[in-house]
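fwd from M.: "can u put these together and see what the complex looks like"

so here's what she sent:
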Amino acid sequence: MTTTSPVEKAGGATAQYVDKRIGSNKFLSRNLGKVFPDHWSFMLGEIALYSFIVVLLTGVFLTLWFKPSMVEVVYDGSYVPLQGIKMSEAYASALDISFDVRGGMLLRQMHHWAALIFVAAMAVHMFRVFFTGAFRKPREFNWLIGVGLTTLGLLAGFSGYSLPDDLLSGTGLQIARGIMQAAPIVGTWAAFLLFGGEFPGTDFISRLYSVHILLIPGLILGLVTAHLMLVWTQKHTQFPGPGRTNDNVVGYPLLPVYMAKAGGFFFIVFGIIALVGGLVTINPIWIFGPFTPDQVSAGSQPDWYIGFLDGALRMMPNWESSFWGITISWNIIIPAMILPGLMFTALGLYPFLESWLTGDKREHNLLDRPRNAPVRTGIGVMAITFYALLWVGGANDIIATAFDLSINSIIWFLRVSIFILPPIAFVVTKRICLGLQRRDRDKLLHGYESGRVLRLPHGEFIEVHQPLSAKDLAVITAKTDVAPLPAPEKADADGVRNKHYRIGTLRHRLSTAFFGDNVARPTDAEIEAGQHHAEHDAALEAPLHEYEDADQISPGRGGALHHPGMAETNAEQMDERSQH
Amino acid sequence: MTDITPHGGHDQQPAKLGYSPRADIEHRLRLADTDPKAARRAERQVTSMFLLSMVFVVLFVVAYIGIDPSTEVYIPVFGLTSALNIALGLTLGLAIFLIGAGAIQWAKKLMPDVEVVQQRHDQLSPDSDTQEAAANYERGKEESGFARFRMLRRTLIGALIVFPIPLVIMLKDLWVPTPEEEGKSPADILSTTLWTADMRIVSDGTYKPVRPEDLPVGGLISAVPADLQEVEELQGNLNARGKAAIILVRMEPDEIRAQQGDGWDYQGILAYSKICTHVGCPIALYEQRTHHLLCPCHQSTFDLADAGNVVFGPAARRMPQLQIGVDAEGYLVAKSDFAEPVGPSFWERG
């Protein structure tokens, strides 16, 4: 820059002032040019972050008007149907926010939508990280932080859903209290302490409020910071592509491109949430009326992320044991305590389990294509199927009325299929992945099938194959073959018994199951030969071009192998296109 | 595979910026890179987005002041909604969205679109750092005597374990029992309700006593104990209501196949707790033909003609029945409290 504006001068002076005190220029010098790889799926985590920021912003506004009190008041606000009705101060103030604070309804709806989007974006972001193996070394900690964030996201959502004290949210709390009460040994005490006595009592909303606006968001904020710092120091993973290796990052520098794109995307997410909050009604608390423990409306549904737990509760057979003066409610303990505990534990442990059974201790900065890890992909789809079935269970009454089915048959279908469909999903997914691997292998060995059949002068028919583009070649060849762990010896050469024989055998079997079916990657020589063959096909076809429009069957979609001549082809094509 | 990912052939000297531009892939120029007109057009697009954003802020203020909060408008698809809410949402949303759209358009059209390469470094610290850290740790251990003074170490650990106990103890008064609750355990409190012998059954909402004639065969009434009116808790009477709420149903006496006690009905009128034994939702979905009661929360189904037993669903226990009769004036009354705790199961329930 040749000219410096007064603003820039002031900015520069400020940077110097700050640097002399905290040495910030060291950080800036290292990081303003930091490179971030680009891919649409990397924006999922950004959506989660930005919607969380919107939740925080709108939440701060809501605290200005919301009164977290269960003391009974008579409503005298401007929503006519509820005027003169006794209700808690919390509900009355939530109604005031909706009807008497200008823009309050918008803030409430933005807050709710942003919360739903926050949890959804975290879930989809987690899918992306799982299916591409981004959780592998060195990023296991960040996976754990992510699992913690997802759990906290559910708690944040549920605690917020319960605050307005309308009939729907109160019913949710009533169920939560019923579940708590069924906990072994401490259940009744836990419930009485948390609710300050009997349900609903007068303490819970104010207690939940401090959890919802201070404790949980504080924890989320701390974990989000740690999550981002780790992404920053470890640098983002990238998908395979030309020039992308395990040891570099290819993308755009923080200043200006990434900052403009990511910063711009924040405003896009924020803006869309505001639009949705303005246009689409969510949680119309005024319809449900104030909470009372002896009323409920049919079709009561929790927010989407609690649906799986509700479904588990609905699906569970009614097992309960009573003996020696105690009662164990398996029908609640299993679906509402053990199941979510197991699900989140399995989620957290998965990276460690995979690295243990594969023996893979390498650093991975290049993402896996899901097909190249068929067992992992299968496990992921299996877990999603399991979750989806629970979720369907949570909507069984809606499904029953919408499709005129019997609730009992839906429940029986789910009770059976929750054990059958996930394994089927695993097998089918794994097969599809292996099929895709085989197709990749074919592409490497023969090039693309162009679908064109050519008759040669001597009468032979051939199917024309085209060489792969540089990008496709780089993507497909990024796959590395990993040999399963070898079977351990029972005893070494000196006849000393192998103490780790059993565990070794287990790991051998598991890693064989994990890698065993993978389609071997062709050797470099084979790939080269295959691509040359495809070029040869294309060359045979070349004379035809004199008679046809070159655009329709232009041979070679980009330079495949680095050899003389290809780059020119590229350049020629580019010229051709710009002429059109 | 360096020949397939032709990355190494170029000068990879790490520049001062920490990254180097890529020259290994053919880069297609954008229209705005080659045509100054196109570049100016892009600039105008971005400028107008930022300008429009400001216009929407002005419109937001106009809507905030000008639209009456009670005005409703009909918008196709979205239905009848608050005009103010829609206006504020649209103007605020577009004002914010356009900043983002402008920034991204700027980045895509006018900022460089050449990918650059930066090298990664191992996460592992250099050996020298590790050794220095270890040496520092050893020095600290030595100087503090943490390893030598065994008692000192153990008592410190003990004190650190014990000191949070007071903080936990203070949580006891999260529940301060009311005078009536004094000396009772949670399980005792959960096991009793407001119902006593000869307490009148009044209909929920109006508190009017119920006569047997008020309830036709096949009908259902939500009811509460007459004393509920007198209960004054801070939040009305919700605690007492949550346990004592019942439903009254009437069927032909010969349709009743079983009850929880002999003659607990009154001329075919049966009283059952309204609170589901699964996790405590109130139930009032009654199918008079089958006498089934269906919980709207988790679809537990109970047969009221068969002692309130579970027919289907996740609930393990039957709905508790309340023994009823009539008093001298012919109003329905309870004969006693429930014989078993109402609502969800708990550990001490037995």
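replying to her w this: The helical segments of chain B are 31-34, 36-66, 83-109, 127-144, 150-162, 165-169, 186-191, 238-244.
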